[in-house]
Amino acid sequence: MKDLPFGFDVIEGSRLDRFDHHIERPLSTLKGLFADAQAYQRMLAEGDRMVYEVYEVRRPAKAGELLTGLSVVHPGRVGGEYFMTKGHYHLVRETAEIYYGVAGRGLLLMQEEGGGWAVEEFRPGRAVYVPPCWAHRSVNTGDEDLVTLFAYPGHAGHDYGAIEQCGFQKLVLRRDGEPQLVDNAAWARAMETR
Ligand code: F6R
Ligand code: ZN
């Protein structure tokens, strides 16, 4: 029985006391993610900074299970664009997800394949619900780690392809010292050629 993850703690602000899998996403693995390709290359030439990490508590990938873990997006920007996750739809579209803000500030960008989009604020103590069929991406708009706890159905899977091809409708850029949502021209172009 002791092998079952009945409980876990967030320790040192941004790590789980027990986890089965640690995903690291340094800048070098995120080519094409940020809108300003030149700023990306310049930053990469200075060093391969860690953009985000995920600590997963493994459970069987089947309906009825919940997959949980901690997502940590570090602070930073490429050009004016805040550090963020790749973002994805779930492979099984009819699966939802819930996030809970543990530390830091940020946004959860969401969009539907039909063209709808939404944005929700992350802050400590706030939960954000991602309904079925909505792609989601975490964006760190603060100066410290954005730490969120997540839970989603075991059979959901991840589909990164659609987002890699078209991106999100909105970019989150720092303008006049504040995060601003800006239309993503690349997304509009990708939609026209579909
Ligand atoms: C799982 C989920 C999160 C993300 C994590 C990293 O369905 O939404 O655990 O996987 O925030 O983001 P991605 O997977 O987009 O690289
Ligand atoms: Zn997800």
Give an overview in words:
With 194 residues, the chain is mainly beta. It has a single domain, classed as Jelly Rolls, CATH 2.60.120.10. 12% of the residues lie in helices and 44% in strands. It contains 3 helices and 17 strands. The protein has helices at residues 37-46, 161-166, 185-192; strands spanning 10-11, 15-16, 21-26, 50-57, 66-73, 77-78, 81-82, 89-90, 97-103, 106-112, 117-122, 127-130, 134-140, 146-153, 158-159, 170-175, 178-183. The protein has a 6-stranded antiparallel β-sheet with strand order 3-4-5-14-9-12, with no helix packed on it. A 3-stranded antiparallel β-sheet has the order 11-10-13, with no helix packed on it. A hairpin with a 3-residue loop joins strand 1 and strand 2. The longest helix has 10 residues, at 37-46. It is globular and about 45 Å long. It starts with 9 loop residues before the first strand and ends with a helix. The mean pLDDT is 95.
